[in-house]
Automatic annotation (TrEMBL):
Pfam families for the chain: GH94_b-supersand, Glyco_hydro_94
Highest taxon of the lineage: Bacteria
Record-level GO BP terms: carbohydrate metabolic process
InterPro entries documented for this protein: 6-hairpin_glycosidase_sf, 6hp_glycosidase-like_sf, Gal_mutarotase_sf_dom, GH65_N, GH94_catalytic, GH94_Enzymes, Glyco_hydrolase_94_b-supersand
Single GO MF annotation: glycosyltransferase activity
Domain Glycosyl hydrolase 94 catalytic: 323-465, 619-809
Limits of the Glycosyl hydrolase 94 supersandwich domain: 100-300
The keyword Methyltransferase belongs to this UniProt entry's keyword annotation: no
CDD domains per the UniProt record, alphabetical: GH94N_LBP_like (cd11749)
Keywords: Glycosyltransferase, Transferase
Protein name: Cellobiose phosphorylase-like protein
Length: 909
């Protein structure tokens, strides 16, 4: 029987026996001080601060089973041999797939991993815990070696950490030359590497970093001597799996030694130990980096001294565990306890993506770190549910990336509110980017009731890109700065509302020949990137239609709550508010209008604002939304020979409809259906048909649910690179978790609860079926043709999954700042006591929501009945008692005591 992981706590802690027997497993270990590590069951992986500051050699997933130079801890046991406590030895590799191999097991929780390895031959067991402390930029390996035999064991321990110490760009480009920059020295407790300079895509620069590997034994004693260079450590003809210095137990060099122009290794050679049966010896190994200063060595010595003893290291470890566990301040209780614990990891994943960006883990080897525009907004969804403090400022900073033409910067700087047009100044427009800011802002307002955020004035991003990526502003110079200016040369500021209007209205006018929004560089699916001239995205035309309608509703609410009848808007954008049926129906007139606007503000704006009637603005937005919805309904519904229907979502670069029945077979894409359902373009009858069609053409239980598309049977060079991928891989027909979760979300919103739950459940079942998925707990970016989870942890699917479970499945959602409860739980999800529970935060209160389904009713047959808060019967208001939802006033919740958890007990009748 194959191994599988088991949860061993409600805080997400799990264990996996034999973890080192699987090739592609890796675990995230990071902190708030900048360290981002990937750690495998054999301590492979890497460690870095950013793209240009890798402490250990950068790795992609293929390196995990190819590289030899991993973290290691050796025990030289005299004439008996040398044992690697991590399993990275030639001897252990030779025993692989035999009964003589070491036993190994991984136990892990939020931001920590413990590997236990036991050797029959050497009668030793090692337990290595990897974590990043809260206060310092370092990764710690705490190693405990235990004598498991009946006789004493004499051994000499050596930690060996190869130090890369440069940019990821130097992995192949100038690998040897950049080693000539290294200046290596040994100090009292370790090895320091300070390159003289760096050169990469940024140019030639003085180096700012000192990299270090330091250590102590459990009593606080430093190593006896050191192996600071790769050449001297591995020896001529040796390698990291059989290093000569360890095999021969050679004497190292003392503190105070110096080397230049070599590849470095943090080789810490400790004094010999004798362990009695059952006795344990502990060692703290620290891998880190600090800014280069004249006193870098003193800084490092002072910093590492805080972890000198085992007691100090263990105390730091416990503080770290508590910190990250408290970050996940939501928990779930249903009949399926495995699902509840799985959701702890899904809820933690948005935190990981905030730290790691979209890169910096082995499968995410396509990027250079950081997050893109879309990620900024989608990651906020989870933060709004778990930790809304600070989200307002984050939203305002993010809006500063919007240009006056409605496009946005696509590369995010290292600090909030800093942006770059695109890497290497490539002009590219993703036509879906304007969708996400409103989605996130709407959730923020619903959760907080903060309508005033719409009035906040913030600048617009400015660079040479203009005309929605079709032109250059020849008058702009880099020294002008990155903010849009008015005719007087002042930085122009517009309201959040104005930013939202610009993003959605410019998209409304930028249409192709079929009247749908141009695909441009790509939409949500980055691999639809080869239809920039005639491609159109019907899918996201739906999304913009939904935004325009909901923006109108939000404005009406704003007017009702504030009593205001008008809002101030940039006079230049008034042309975009045109409300003319003949204009809407004419592709040419729409394009001409958009060009008039973008040409008028190609370099500067007037800076003048005029009050606009909210009533008229609402009417204009509603008409635009209705036009788009009606146009799609009238032109894009397709059927197969049996009458099954769905929406076409794309036009290729030849201007041809992409979905339907073709000579090559049926073509259907999940994204097209998601936004048609979510934006209410699809009628209830069409939603039912879409589900039937998706079940027929896209659903694959063995792969985790709904595929992203059917097999088009050709490499469509007129649509996108995805069709060059093997079918069932990544964007071409894999089960892409993000879109599958959004399909579930859309179905829940439309009342198709059974169907929505099935989509979520399929992803969950596939994820936790380790025999197939081969991933630790959590949701991956996608499942491939074999059902294996790929690109784990760093996916927006986690935010949407969490959002859907909390706000749709449990139905705990904000409504203009009040708490709406609209449960959509199926009967099978209630536990044996007919209860389902959710711990979450709302209005600054910690809440314990309990639904009781004593009459064993299925969804659709029950509704909220009596409500008790902390045992007291509440006569709730804001909702009709005969409906399936109730609303609890925010102000009443805020009157409850803080710093305690309040129970909301809802009886379903």
């Amino acid at each position: 029987m194959q191994n599988t992981y088991q949860f061993i706590s409600d805080k997400g802690v799990f264990s996996l026996p034999g973890a080192a027997d699987y090739s592609d497993l890796y675990f995230p270990v990071a902190g708030e001080c900048g360290i981002k590590s990937a750690v495998t069951p054999t301590l492979g992986g890497d460690c870095k601060l950013d793209q240009n500051t890798f402490l250990l050699e950068p790795v992609s997933v293929e390196n995990l089973h190819n590289n030899r130079n991993a973290r290691n801890f050796w025990c030289h046991i005299g004439t008996h041999g040398s044992w690697s406590a991590t399993g990275n030895s030639a001897e252990e590799i030779a025993k692989k797939f035999t009964d003589l191999a070491d036993e190994n097991e991984v136990t892990a929780g939020f931001m920590w991993q413990t590997v236990t390895r036991t050797s029959r031959k050497y009668q030793l067991s090692a337990q290595i815990t990897s974590f990043v402390p809260l206060d310092d930029p370092m990764e710690i390996m705490y190693v405990e070696i235990t004598n498991t035999g009946n006789m004493q064991v004499r051994f000499t321990p050596t930690a060996a950490i190869p130090v890369y110490g440069r940019s990821a760009d130097n992995l192949r480009d100038h690998r040897h030359v950049t080693s000539l920059l290294h200046r290596i020295r040994t100090v009292e407790n370790g090895v320091l590497v300070t390159p003289t300079m760096s050169f990469d895509e940024r140019g030639h620069r003085p180096n700012e970093m000192t990299y270090f590997v330091c250590g102590y034994d459990q009593t606080g004693e430093a190593p006896e001597d050191f192996y600071p260079t790769v050449q001297d450590f591995i020896g001529e003809g040796g390698n990291f799996e059989r290093p000569k210095a360890v095999v021969k137990n050679l004497a190292g060099v003392p503190a105070g030694s110096a080397y230049a122009g070599c590849e470095a290794v943090g080789g810490l050679h400790f004094k010999e130990r004798i362990l009695a049966p059952g006795e344990t010896a502990g060692y703290t190994i620290m891998i880190g980096a600090v800014r280069k200063t004249e006193y870098a060595g003193e800084t490092i010595l002072s910093m590492t001294a805080a972890y000198r003893t085992a007691a100090q290291t263990k105390a730091a470890y416990e503080r770290m565990k508590t910190y990250w566990e408290q970050k996940v301040n939501v928990s779930y209780h249903t009949k399926d306890r495995q699902f509840d614990r799985y959701m702890q990891w899904v809820s933690f994943q948005p935190i990981l993506r905030r730290i790691y960006g979209c890169s910096f883990l082995p499968h995410h080897d396509y990027g250079k770190g950081g997050r893109g525009w879309r990620d900024l907004w989608q990651d906020c969804l989870a933060l709004l549910l778990m930790n809304p403090d600070g989200v307002r400022e984050m939203l305002l900073n993010n809006f500063q990336g919007v240009r006056i033409d409605g496009t946005n910067a696509t590369i995010i700087g290292s600090k909030e509110g800093t942006f770059i047009a695109d890497r290497n100044q490539i002009t590219r427009v993703w036509m879906d980017h304007g969708v996400w800011p409103f989605v996130t802002t709407k959730l923020y307002i619903d959760q907080t009731g903060d309508l005033a955020v719409l009035e906040e004035e913030i600048p617009y991003f400015k660079d040479q890109q203009a005309g929605r990526g079709t032109k250059k502003d020849a008058a702009w110079k880099a020294q002008d700065g990155c903010w849009q200016r008015d005719a007087a040369g002042n930085v122009y500021r517009g309201s959040v509302l104005e930013h939202l209007l610009l993003q959605n209205l410019t998209a409304f006018y930028e249409v192709g020949e079929h009247g749908h929004i141009r695909l441009r560089g790509a939409d949500w699916n980055d691999a639809l990137d080869m239809a920039g001239e005639r491609g159109e995205s019907v899918a996201f035309t739906n999304a913009y239609a939904g935004n325009l309608r909901e923006l109108a509703e939000l404005l009406a609410l704003y007017a009702e709550k504030t009593g205001k009848e008008s809002v101030p808007l940039n006079r230049d954008l008034f042309v975009l508010l045109a409300d003319d049926d003949t204009l809407y129906a004419s592709v040419q007139k729409k394009q001409e209008l958009l060009t008039r606007y973008t040409d008028a503000c190609i370099h500067e704006v007037s800076g003048q604002k005029t009050e606009v009637s909210i009533t008229e603005l609402v009417r204009s937005l509603q008409k635009k939304a209705a036009f788009l919805t009606g146009h799609i309904r009238a032109t894009e519904w397709v059927t197969d020979e049996e009458g099954n229907g769905w929406f076409n979502g794309y036009y290729d670069n030849h201007g041809r409809c992409v979905e339907g029945v073709f000579a090559q077979g049926v073509r259907m894409m999940l994204t097209s259906q998601v936004f048609a359902v979510m934006a209410q373009t699809a009628t209830d009858e069409q939603v039912a048909e879409i589900v039937r069609s998706a079940d027929k053409y896209l659903y694959c239980d063995a792969m985790g649910g709904y595929r992203l598309n059917t097999d088009f049977g050709e490499v469509k060079m007129d649509l996108g690179r995805m069709f060059g991928f093997a079918y069932g891989e990544k964007e071409n027909g894999a089960v892409f978790s993000h879109m599958a979760v959004m399909f579930a979300n859309a179905l829940y919103k439309r009342g198709f609860v059974k169907e929505g739950h099935r989509a979520l459940d399929a992803l969950y079942r596939q994820s936790v079926h380790f025999e197939t998925s081969r991933i630790y707990p959590g949701i991956p970016e996608y499942f491939n043709s074999r059902g294996k989870g790929m690109y784990h942890y760093l996916t927006g699917a986690a935010s949407w999954y969490m959002l859907t479970v909390i706000t749709e499945m449990f139905g705990a959602k904000g409504c203009a700042g009040n708490l709406m409860l609209e449960p959509k739980l199926e009967r099978q999800q209630f536990d044996l006591d007919e209860r389902a529970e959710l711990f979450f935060s709302f209005a600054g209160q910690s809440l314990h929501l309990v639904y009781e389904n004593k009459e064993h009713k299925e969804y659709g047959a029950y509704r909220p009945g009596t409500i008790r808060i902390d045992g007291e019967l509440w006569d709730y208001s804001g909702g009709e008692k005969e409906t399936r939802s109730v609303c609890i006033d925010r102000e009443r919740l805020k009157q409850l005591d803080f710093d305690v958890t309040h129970e909301i007990l809802v009886e379903l009748v």
